[in-house]
UniProtKB/TrEMBL annotation, chain A:
It is found in: Cell membrane. The chain crosses the membrane at residues 6-36, 82-102, 114-137, 149-174, 195-216, 222-241, 248-273, 293-315. Belongs to the cytochrome ubiquinol oxidase subunit 2 family. Coiled coil: none annotated. It holds the Pfam family Cyt_bd_oxida_II. GO terms for molecular function: electron transfer activity; metal ion binding; oxidoreductase activity, acting on diphenols and related substances as donors, oxygen as acceptor. Keywords: Cell membrane, Electron transport, Heme, Iron, Membrane, Metal-binding, Transmembrane, Transmembrane helix, Transport. GO terms for biological process: aerobic electron transport chain. It comes from Rarobacter incanus. This is Cytochrome bd-I ubiquinol oxidase subunit 2 apoprotein. Its main location: membrane. It is a multi-pass membrane protein.
Automatic annotation (TrEMBL), chain B:
This is Cytochrome bd-I ubiquinol oxidase subunit 1 apoprotein. Residues 476-500 are annotated as: Disordered. One of its GO terms (biological process) is aerobic electron transport chain. Belongs to the cytochrome ubiquinol oxidase subunit 1 family. InterPro entries: Cyt-d_ubiquinol_oxidase_su_1. It is found in: Cell membrane. It comes from the Bacteria. GO terms for cellular component: cytochrome complex; plasma membrane. It is a multi-pass membrane protein.
Length: 346, 500
């Protein structure tokens, strides 16, 4: 068995898991100011992902840990090279987590407004930055002979990468809106559906331009054109099924489109994991990988555990499958900022 | 400051901060699970009240543990990329296993527990919190496997061609005796932390309720808070015994595996037969053995702690330095002399503060059990104060414990294993990323400010929810079928039992 290849594929799978799952919960966070007209509606939006966003985020930690274990050189180069974007992503994820958990803890308009901002910021920023980061990987970065990134921060902000950021943001907006159309009911469902249609058209245009650019300039193989086609067809199918009000199908196609984008990225860079502008210095699945022993151990662990994770995460979605309406949202359970003084103190 | 100093400060700040939340989560999740179990078994409402009360505090705390945990994983690659290249083959495996085997369970099942009160049958819902409780402890095991490997590398070999360490046995890494000394110590300390938290808050509330005069008629003070206090105290006693026992065996192992760390912890400035245990030592800040003066010490005790023999010989810092120089070189690449001893004052004092603060819980445990014996409810305001004062002590003990164990490892990031694996070691200075200092400085400032703000928010929320107290009325909302089939005819369309 070619273990580095298996792990290259497995890490692609982990990123598909992460971006498909957290993609829609990013989208929901991004849509709070767009679709949530009042506090109750915003709470409906947040609660559609309430029970699941934390589990979704672990896919990122697993992708990170798996890269560390299977491709230490890739992990080291990527994380030290993309220092500032990752720092911003970390800050965004931290305030977003606190936003979800702390927003409803205090029943005060200012308090919830601040945490709404944290969720919105924490959802938009990574949605853009993941696209910027992956587009830079596809494009190739300036590595030295020791595989250290020497390109500087501003080289990461090139047009191709910035368009990549726009693409992921639009994809997640679409994905989030489609998810909401599937998960809410009433007036919100109508608005989510309408927004999803617009977002899908915008995402199709932007992703189309980016994918053709990537294919023409950076991917030197033919089969990835098939993936571009799959992505294009899926996005058109989202537009069509969404317009027909087939929310379940629209969500499946939206997920397939994001998965196809990840396959395109990994397909474009293969057999590199981190292409360098000087090809001699590129990190490949061979020179970046761990020893066969480590990869064998990790393969057994992954084969045993990934299916179980998928089973219980799917079960979670099934338990919370009910559509949410504003009537389902209970009165705020948060406390007031200060304890009422009527109670005696010690 | 150069990249190395900045990177070390950043790692220290983010790690100590992360470990404020972690021990409480590791200990409190099982305690809440036990509370809920007793409720399911007995149907007694007071246990449901305790579950809800401490469950909310657990969640406020869990959020920050998760948020700061992501930083922990990312910064190995961001600021310690050369370390990551050297050890990734080994160190990455337990991290990936933690995510796959433990963290997925914690996050997914915690969501099911928070939102699932009216969606899952009672016993299934109970199983959710148990899954979280087991998984947080499993997380600790994998993370400590990674850390223990840095303290005492096993199951690895040095590859001359790649210049990296390679894994030879995952079994050795997961059965590392350093791990199996560190894990019980960390877990028992976490239970001590959580139990002190439960007992301290309950003590304060019991006294407060008793002083308003409603205690005698069997209401909240007696039923809920007295129960919480005694539950917490008994767990503290059991966990406290575990902390002492596991700490002692861990120290014995450290004398063998990291003699320099223990020599620094004891300010042993020359090799001694029947080494004394230092109660108070003063010294200069220049961090060498000259100028270190022992003021109070107990003869023979350190030797006894090291290997059970009052007269055994322990090596001092200068002798160990000479041995290390012979084995690992006198100078680094730049030609500077390498000091193989950690910062003596930090190591010495953090070791003592760890032990000293841990003792803070003991007073509360003994007072709490004595004052509530035979069904009594105490209105002693000193007990309430003691409860509040005791809460932070095990947190501080944990922090100083980690400062001790990590500073004591310096100047190594992967300490050499004197009893086996040859060649697998790395000086901390060589592990840092080759990046611009301003990058690390920026992130250090960003994290410090962000963490500072979040600490205030966390404290305010914990405080606010604590002074709100346990709910006066609780309702069993569990459905009979998975997915929230209604218990009553109109139940399915009513509002959710919990929503953000």
């Amino acid at each position: 068995m070619d273990l580095p290849l298996i792990w290259f594929l497995l890490i692609a799978v982990l990123w598909i898991g992460y971006l498909v799952l957290e993609g829609f919960d990013f989208g929901v966070g991004m849509l709070i100011p767009i679709l949530g007209r009042n506090d109750k509606e915003r709470r409906v939006l947040i609660n559609t992902i309430g029970p699941v966003w934390d589990g979704n985020e672990v896919w990122l930690l697993t992708a990170g840990g798996a890269t560390f274990a299977a491709f230490p050189e890739w992990y080291a180069t990527l994380f030290s090279g993309f220092y500032l974007p990752l720092l911003l992503i970390l800050v965004a994820l931290i305030v977003r987590i606190c936003g979800f958990e702390y927003r409803g803890k205090i029943n005060d308009a200012k308090w919830t407004a601040w945490w709404d901002r944290a969720i919105i910021f924490g959802s938009w920023l990574p949605a853009v930055l993941w696209g910027v980061a992956f587009a830079n990987i596809v494009r190739g970065v300036n590595l030295d002979a020791n595989h250290n990134y020497v390109g500087g921060f501003f080289a990461l902000l090139n047009p191709f990468a910035l368009l990549g950021g726009v693409v992921t943001a639009l994809l997640f907006l679409m994905h989030g809106a489609v998810f909401l159309a599937l998960k809410v009911d009433g007036d919100l469902r109508v608005r989510a559906n309408r927004f999803a249609g617009k977002a899908a058209i915008a995402a199709t245009v932007a992703a189309g331009v980016w994918a053709v650019w990537a294919q023409a300039a950076f991917a030197n193989r033919a089969w990835t054109w098939a993936i571009v086609a799959v992505a294009a067809i899926s996005l058109l199918a989202v537009i069509f099924t969404n317009a027909k009000g087939r929310e379940g199908l629209a969500f499946i196609f939206s997920a397939v489109a994001i998965a196809a984008a990840v396959v395109l990225i990994f397909g474009a860079i293969f057999p590199n994991v981190m292409p360098a502008t000087n090809p001699d210095y590129s990190l490949t699945i061979r020179n970046a990988s761990s020893t066969d022993y480590t990869l064998t151990v990790m393969t057994w662990v992954a084969v045993a555990l990934v299916p179980i994770v998928l089973i219980y995460q799917s079960w979670t979605y099934w338990v919370f499958r009910k559509r949410l309406r504003t009537e389902h949202i209970p009165a705020p359970a948060g406390l007031s900022l200060t304890k009422q003084t009527s109670q005696a103190a010690v | 400051m150069d990249v190395l100093d900045l990177a070390r400060w950043q790692f220290g700040i983010t790690t100590v901060y992360h470990f404020i939340f972690v021990p409480l989560t590791i200990g409190l999740a099982p305690l809440v699970a036990i509370m809920q179990t007793v409720w399911v078994k007995t149907g007694d409402d007071k246990w449901l009240k305790l579950t809800k009360f401490f469950g909310k505090l657990l969640l406020i705390n869990f959020a920050l543990g998760v948020a700061t945990g992501i930083v922990q994983e990312f910064q190995f690659g961001m600021t310690w990329s050369e370390y990551s290249r050297f050890v990734g083959d080994i160190f990455g495996a337990p991290l990936a296993m933690e995510a796959l085997a433990a963290f997925f369970i914690e996050s997914t099942f915690l969501g099911l527990w928070i939102f699932g009160w009216d969606r899952l049958p009672k016993k299934i819902h109970l199983a959710m919190i148990w899954a979280v409780a087991v998984a947080v402890n499993l997380s600790a095991l994998f993370i400590l496997a990674a850390n223990s490997w840095m303290q005492h590398p096993v199951g690895a070999t040095f590859n001359e061609t790649t210049g990296r360490a390679g894994m030879t046995s995952i079994g050795d890494i997961l059965t590392n005796n350093t791990l199996w000394a560190a894990f019980p110590h960390t877990v028992t300390a976490s239970f001590l932390t959580a139990a002190t938290f439960v007992a301290g808050i309950s003590a304060w509330w019991m006294v407060k309720k008793a002083r308003t005069g409603v205690a005698k008629d069997g209401t909240t003070a007696k039923s809920v808070y007295r129960t919480g206090l005694r539950f917490g105290c008994w767990i503290m006693i059991i966990a406290g015994i575990g902390v002492i026992w596991s700490g002692d065996s861990q120290a014995k192992l450290m004398f063998q595996q990291q003699p320099m760390k223990m020599a620094a912890a004891e300010a042993l400035c020359h090799t001694e037969d029947g080494a004394a245990f230092s109660i108070l030592t003063i010294g200069d800040v220049n961090n060498d053995c000259e100028g270190v003066t022992r003021l109070i010490s107990v003869p023979g005790v350190t030797s006894f702690l090291a290997n059970g023999n009052f007269n055994s010989t322990l090596q001092g810092v200068p002798e160990l330095q000479a041995q290390y120089e012979q084995k690992y070189g006198y100078t680094d690449e730049a030609g500077n002399a390498i000091s193989y001893s950690p910062n003596l004052m930090v190591t010495y004092w953090s070791f003592r503060l760890m032990i000293g603060f841990a003792a803070g819980s003991v007073a509360l445990a003994l007072a709490g059990i004595w004052l509530t014996r035979k069904g009594r409810v105490s209105d002693n305001k000193w007990l309430a104060r003691l409860g509040i004062i005791a809460i932070p002590t095990p947190f501080l003990a944990s922090s100083f414990g980690w400062i001790f164990t990590e500073i004591g490892r310096q100047p190594w990031v992967v300490a050499p294993n004197p009893t086996g694996v040859d060649g697998v070691w790395l000086l901390t200075a060589r592990g840092v990323s080759p990046i611009a200092p301003w990058l690390v400085l920026t992130s250090m400032i960003v994290f410090t400010l962000l963490y500072g703000v979040l600490a205030v928010v966390w404290y305010k929320l914990m405080h606010r929810y604590t002074i709100e107290g346990a709910p006066e009325h609780v309702e069993d909302v569990s459905p009979t079928k998975i997915g929230g089939k209604p218990r009553t005819a109109d139940g399915d369309d009513g509002p959710l039992s919990f929503a953000y």
